[in-house]
Amino acid sequence: MKLSLAIVAFALAIPSAIYAQDSTAVSKGEYPNTFSSGSANVSPFTNKSKRFNDWAISAGVGVPLLQSADLTSIKNGNGKNLFGYSAYVSIDKAITHAFGINLQYDRGETRQGWFNTKNAAPDAYAVAARTQYDAISILGDINFSNLLRRVDNHSPYRWALHGYAGIGTIAYRAYQKDINGQRLMTEIKPFQLGSLFMQAGAGLKFKVNRRIDIEGRLMYVVTGDEEFDGGGDAYSAINRRSEQVSDNFFNATLGVSLKLGKHESHVMWHDPLQEIYYKLDVLANKNQDIEVCKKGDADNDGVCDDWDRQLDTPAGARVDGAGVALDTDLDGVIDLYDKCVTVPGPVENNGCPVATTGPVVETETKLEGIEFDLNSDRILPSNTPILNNAVNYINSSNGSYNVIGATDTRGTDAYNQKLSERRANNVKNYLIKNGVQTGKLQAVGKGEKDLKYPECEPATKCPEWKNRANRRVYFEAK
């Protein structure tokens, strides 16, 4: 029965090895999906490349406390705790970044009962015991921090939670002491069926550097023998638990691990991110050519021809993700050649707006006018100097003028007609308020029927500076 329980417990530590991931594996060309944790390069880890250290030697010391027995270390007959000592040394082999096997030797002494066996018995009813033990076991080591680590977490980490479980053989000598003195109660030798034991627990590791780890462990040891505590057999006077089948104890230890090998990193601290270590694979093979663009990059803009929408981008031009030269102000002049990158302007003026600083100029029978924002009839402050010049010019002339409003081709005909009329009337009212005689002006709305750039039908065929020029009010002599 003891052997069966031991085998079952040890078997529970093994399955994680089957599912451990190897981020150094070569992709099979499969597209990542929800089952591949975001990486198409996931497969059973073998460390065939031998780029990680996978051996270590560990040692530590601690305190065992007999917990489940007739004579205990915790809250004994006098309400005190009796502390023993323990030590361990192990040879550790990592199979994957998430699973390893340790061959461990333990030695220690538990102290239990009503008093410390180094002292005299306080009375005739007080009983104490101590148990010296040696054990050899094989432990499965599960690195939960790597097993459960998100594969999209690129951050380095120096703490790791490990779980341990395994079976082995234990030898011990149990001594009992009372008012009559000390005597050997039980002696069990190792490598016998009755000497099998189990232990399981957890440890928290801290990576000091590439060579040294420190670890705190708490293990629970199932001895498989109810005479381990020195209390005698099931029918002795000291035995208070006739149903007891095993004396068990906690073992708290603090240890250090020395990682062996010539490589920079140990596999148990290996980050399971495919993206990082796939690049290391490429860098390690310096003779491997990396084919970035299958069809090349004809215009050298950094966008492969496979998805480049503009294969003749001028040298030096900034491009978007589709390889199209940037035109920040959408005026039809790319930023490379645009002298006014953020302000739209005509091509003939290198992408800069044409400034009107002097008086409104009369060309034949027309006076050049002002422009408006999209869907707006508001006179912009920048147009004030132009209109003031128009006031002076009209007042100095003998003729009368039509104030003509126009729009671009966005919107319906009816909407654009009304918008153009509002623009014309706003300009007319401004001129009248600033001294122009009412009889010299007549507001006329022409909607989208009087485009300065007729080719902008629809508006999407033209850059923004041309559409803005179509949204205007100008003056025409009658």
Write a structural description.
- The protein contains seven helices and 14 strands.
- With 478 residues, it is of the alpha+beta class.
- It has two domains: 2-281, Porin (Beta Barrel), CATH 2.40.160; 357-477, 60s Ribosomal Protein L30, Chain: A (2-Layer Sandwich).
- The strands form two sheets. An eight-stranded antiparallel beta barrel has the order 1-2-3-4-5-7-8-9.
- The radius of gyration is 44 Å and the shape is rod-shaped.
- This is OmpA-OmpF porin, OOP family.
- It is found in: Cell outer membrane.
- InterPro entries: Bact_OuterMem_StrucFunc, OMP_bac, OmpA-like, OMPA-like_CS, OmpA-like_sf, TSP_type-3_rpt.
- Residues 362-478 form the OmpA-like domain.
Got a strand count?
A: 14
Outline the biggest β-sheet. Answer: 8 strands, antiparallel, barrel
**What's the pLDDT, averaged over the residues?**
79
Strand content: 25-35%
What would you call the structural class? alpha+beta
Give the strand order of the largest sheet, numbering strands 1, 2, ... along the chain. 1-2-3-4-5-7-8-9
The total domain count is 2
Q: How many DSSP H or I helices?
A: 7
Task: Kindly summarize this structure in a few lines.
With 478 residues, the chain is an alpha+beta fold.
